[in-house]
Recover the amino acids of this structure.
């Protein structure tokens, strides 16, 4: 089946720092999404981004489908950014990576 | 409703008992998904419903797991003869099409 690999598995940032999270996948992408799971377990859809670049506030994402990777950028990180970031792809159902656990410390 | 609602939020059960977990999706969402998340792990797909089509059960780990969706809305995930390895957070999501998944808050199941 399709493989979804995320890196790094864990990341600790000082508040205000920037970071890049990576998602590599083994198959062609027809649907790629990024999610944030907060420390209370709630999953929030951040981006639907099968190709190109999107931005939403301090977050942006880029998918290069031909090279089978996607990047999530977090700028000026805040403690509320802490949690686990998942990328997921394929249509039905979504296949999730194992996530990147981000801790932002004040 | 405004979001995906799951109940109960927490469930502790004895090994060998049956449990039912409920998911109430967003009104009008035709697709409904069940995932399982073990402690510190990613999301494991269990089952998927789309409209009136036969469900995709390819992720169910054993025949002790089953799910139904009544009237194209509420879904119930049933685990029979629970085992300790069934302990996890069970997450439900709904969507209209392939994008825009909305997840519920999950049911944390503990089998003792």
């Amino acid at each position: 089946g399709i493989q979804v690999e995320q890196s790094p598995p864990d990341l600790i940032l000082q508040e205000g720092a920037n970071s890049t999270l990576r998602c590599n996948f083994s198959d062609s992408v027809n649907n790629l999404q990024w999610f944030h799971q907060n420390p209370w377990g709630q999953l929030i859809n951040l981006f639907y981004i099968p190709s190109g670049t999107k931005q939403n506030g301090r977050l942006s994402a880029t998918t290069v489908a031909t090279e089978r990777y996607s990047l999530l950028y977090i700028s000026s990180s805040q403690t509320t950014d802490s949690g686990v970031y998942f990328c997921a792809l394929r249509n039905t159902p979504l296949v999730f990576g194992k996530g990147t656990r981000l801790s932002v410390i004040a | 409703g405004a979001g995906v609602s799951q109940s109960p939020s927490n469930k502790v059960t004895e090994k060998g008992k049956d449990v039912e977990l409920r998911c109430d999706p967003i009104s009008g969402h035709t697709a409904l998904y069940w995932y399982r998340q073990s402690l510190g792990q990613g999301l494991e797909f269990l089952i998927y419903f789309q409209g009136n089509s036969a469900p995709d059960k390819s992720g169910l780990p054993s025949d002790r797991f089953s799910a139904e969706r009544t009237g194209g809305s509420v879904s119930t995930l049933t685990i029979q003869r629970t085992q300790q390895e069934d302990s996890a957070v069970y997450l439900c999501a709904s969507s209209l099409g392939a994008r825009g998944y909305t997840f519920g808050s999950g049911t944390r199941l503990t089998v003792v």
Remarks:
- The CA atoms of residues 10 and 108 of chain B lie 5 Å apart.
- Chain B touches chain A at residues 31, 33, 35, 41-43, 45, 48, 50, 56, 59, 89, 91, 93, 98-103, 105-106 (CB under 8 Å).
- The mean pLDDT of chain B is 93.
- Chain B has no helices and ten strands.
